């Protein structure tokens, strides 16, 4: 299980270990240095992943916000999370510029300018020497394989379902199976499934994207590819996958594309995330039958899902906690 290991944001100064830094990394991050343009390792670097602080590991930028500014330094139009970076005015070299620093350890990163592209209009101009790069984990999905991972960064290992009192996290009993569906906002979607007889547990989370350890803010405010999804843990002797598919079809409008009702965005798209070859086959057959019953073209995607990322605790069984 992949636990989040980075430290949380804090304004209090942590002792920083700079002994592992190269001379250039030290000069840039600790002495507000600037590397020569077009010299850094990440100027023309286009892999998918996360850029973190070279000093403390704080996750700072996602590759999806990186763009080619032509400046000779790695450029991003947004920070991964606003509170991981802080800024202050820098009047050195006869210019008034806004310096950006790691909010966790105060490492100098570079500057931010108001001449970036949409949607923010900002250009974070960052030294490669301030950054480490963490590539996206290669997904395990593949033809004919049933490998699947649960990723939990928010919940205690012994967390229980707020309604049923059953386990929220694996390992689940051997006789149980799991399914993952995306049908709009996960609060209401989860409730549709936890009420069913034969469903042992449900949880809300994120699936279908690539960013490591996604959180609600990232999924809702940047194009991570993730959808809000429901994990259903069920006893196939009591309720079948085919019956769950029926609940899925009836629980939303699968012709709406990148929205569901008033919830607009790619995270609300309709998707069946098959966890096994058998589920994938059943889902595809079921989709064909559903389409024959409709005039509008269905937009439901059927994909193989490699990883279910548990959402934050307050989203789990949200409607029950809220008493609705
Ligand atoms: Zn840092």
Largest sheet: 7 strands, mixed
For the secondary structure, the number of strands is 18
Mean pLDDT: 88
Beta-strand share of residues:
25-35%
Run of helices and strands: HEEEEEEEEEEEHEHEHEEEHEEH
CATH architecture field of the largest domain: 2-Layer Sandwich
Counting DSSP H or I runs of 4 or more residues, the number of helices is 6
Radius of gyration: 23 Å
Oligomer: single chain
**CATH class assignment of the largest domain:** Alpha Beta
Report the CATH superfamily of the largest domain: Peptide methionine sulphoxide reductase MsrA
Strand-pairing-aware structural class: alpha+beta
Tally of structural domains: 2
* Helicity, as a percent range: 10-25%
Task: List segments where confidence is low: pLDDT < 50 over at least 5 consecutive residues.
Answer: 1-13, 138-145
Numbering strands along the chain, what is their spatial order in the largest sheet? 10-18-12-13-11-16-17
Shape: elongated
What small-molecule ligands were found? Answer: zinc ion
Which fold name fills CATH's third level, the topology of the largest domain? Peptide Methionine Sulfoxide Reductase, Chain A
Task: Tell me briefly what this model is.
With 324 residues, this protein is α+β, with helices and mostly antiparallel strands.
Primary descriptors:
single chain, 324 residues, alpha+beta, Metal Binding Protein, Guanine Nucleotide Exchange Factor, Chain A, Peptide Methionine Sulfoxide Reductase, Chain A, 2 domains, six-stranded antiparallel sheet, 26% strand, binds zinc ion
């Amino acid at each position: 299980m992949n636990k989040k290991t980075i430290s949380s944001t804090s304004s209090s100064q942590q002792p920083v270990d700079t002994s592992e830094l190269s001379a250039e990394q030290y000069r840039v991050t600790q002495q507000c240095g600037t590397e020569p343009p077009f010299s850094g390792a990440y100027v023309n670097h286009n892999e998918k992943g996360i850029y973190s602080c070279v000093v403390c590991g704080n996750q700072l930028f996602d590759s999806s916000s990186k763009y080619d500014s032509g400046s000779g330094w790695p450029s991003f139009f947004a920070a991964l999370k606003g509170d991981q970076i802080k800024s202050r005015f820098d009047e050195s070299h006869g210019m008034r510029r806004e310096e950006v620093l790691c909010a966790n350890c105060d490492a100098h990163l570079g500057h931010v300018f108001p001449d970036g592209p949409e949607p923010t209009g900002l250009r974070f101009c960052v030294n490669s020497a301030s950054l480490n790069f963490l590539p996206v984990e290669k997904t395990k999905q593949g033809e004919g394989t049933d490998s699947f991972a649960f990723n939990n960064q928010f919940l205690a290992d012994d967390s229980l379902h707020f309604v049923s009192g059953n386990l929220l996290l694996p390992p689940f009993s051997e006789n149980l199976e799991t399914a993952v569906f995306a049908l709009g906002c996960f609060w209401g979607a989860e409730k549709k499934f936890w009420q069913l007889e034969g469903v042992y547990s449900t949880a809300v989370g994120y699936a279908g994207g690539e960013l490591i350890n996604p959180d609600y803010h990232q999924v809702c405010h940047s194009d991570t590819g993730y959808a809000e999804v429901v994990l259903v843990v069920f006893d196939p002797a009591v309720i079948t996958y085919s019956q769950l598919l029926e609940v899925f079809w009836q629980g939303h409008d699968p012709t709406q594309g990148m929205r569901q009702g008033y919830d607009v965005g790619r995270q609300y798209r309709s998707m069946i995330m098959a966890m096994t070859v058998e589920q994938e086959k059943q889902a595809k057959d079921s989709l064909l039958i559903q389409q024959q019953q409709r005039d509008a073209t269905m937009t439901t995607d059927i994909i193989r899902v490699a990883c279910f990322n548990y959402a934050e605790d307050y989203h789990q069984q949200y409607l029950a906690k809220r008493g609705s």
